[in-house]
Specification:
By secondary structure, the protein is mostly beta strands. The protein has one domain. Helices cover 0% and strands 50% of the residues. The protein contains no helices and 6 strands. Strands 1-2-3 form a 3-stranded antiparallel β-sheet, with no helix packed on it. A 3-stranded antiparallel β-sheet has the order 4-5-6, with no helix packed on it. It is globular. The mean pLDDT is 80.
Length: 66
């Protein structure tokens, strides 16, 4: 999907319960994940699948397909 593109993962500061993925060259928001009820503290991409995981102070780990 993004093998040759630079992607920025960003925890939205205005609503810190949301993770945003941006495609940098196109300056385009690719997708938004808002599955948490507490501030997001970590975001990680799966090394070979099109998935990401996020952790939050709500003690919930969210996994999503991108």
């Amino acid at each position: 999907m993004w093998e040759n593109k630079k992607v920025l993962k960003h925890v939205c500061e205005a609503c810190c319960y949301t993770v945003q993925l941006w495609e940098l060259e196109a300056r385009k928001l690719v997708c938004t994940f808002s599955q948490h009820t507490g501030p997001v503290s970590s975001v990680h991409f799966h090394p070979s699948e099109h998935m990401l995981a996020s952790g939050s102070s709500d003690k919930y780990a969210a996994v999503g397909h991108i």
